[in-house]
Amino acid sequence: MNIIWLGHSGFRIEIEDAVLLIDPWLDGNPMFPAEKRAAALAGVTHILLTHAHGDHASSTIAIAAQTGASIAAIHELAGWLEREGAASVIGFNKGGTIDAGSARVTMVNAAHSASIDFQGGNAIAGGSAAGFMIAGEGQVVYVSGDTDIMADMEWMADYHKPTIGILSCGGHYTMDMARAAYAARRYFNFRTVIPCHYRTFDALAQDASVLKAGLPPGVTLIEPQVMEPIRF
User: Fold this and answer.
1) Which residues have CB under 8 Å from 135's CB, separation 6+?
2) In this structure, what CATH number is given to the domain that contains residue 57?
3) Is the pLDDT of residue 119 over 70?
């Protein structure tokens, strides 16, 4: 399995026979180099959206049209994407599980707002925010999506037993580094933690030193670099 950061909250996850793009905000993302677009999109099979905000979902329809990948998102956002012309959309909801090739993707809760905010500047309802548990190759990857600490993390960790945590932790709009470290200590038994939703803007944390210092002994923190694979 390869996990490749696209900057901000975007990831390319190569798992089993699937290539998943998570929240692939490429157009306008100050961290993503335009010349890497073809490499980021090569062989993509599915696009997974945690929620509708423009810094997560605004590139989605164009990417799907270019690659032919299916888009999977919460029901209301999926319906909007279909109305906007997306050809292959899978709408599901929290607690639901879909197949992504031989990998399995379960939508779980997140605590965040979720309006569609990239259509002419007008915000419209886009369902609610979510995270994902992605199972394959003997591991479970928890993609937190934009969230704060939730009591739900306790049962989510106990039920799904994720080994890798991709955690939003830049602060201001999501958990900050200290809160993400608390969540990892309090609820999870990760082997590896990968921070995201940081470094993009001045309002966000610029490094993960506080998160690293707060993790339990034995948990590896990997600060991702854009388009550099993290191999498991």
Assistant:
1) 103, 104, 105, 106, 141, 160
2) 3.60.15.10
3) no
